[in-house]
Amino acid sequence: MRTTISIEGIRCHAFHGCMEEEGLIGGEYLVDVTITKDLRLSMESDDLKDTVDYIWSAM
After folding, report:
1. Does residue 46 fall inside a structural domain?
2. Most CB within 10 Å of its CB: which of 1, 20, 40, 46?
3. Tell me: the pLDDT tens digits for 16-38?
């Protein structure tokens, strides 16, 4: 069974980019994330270690 988790509309101001000015003044970013994964083990165990690791899922 595959489950989809969606987070939409994450807004942030960050200081990075290709140009020097971007590091000084920053920029506004809007992020939407969707992860589809088989979550049966985490639903059965209810153990945090069996849930989605958002850092490694994005790589």
Report:
1. yes
2. 40
3. 888 888 888 999 999 998 989 89
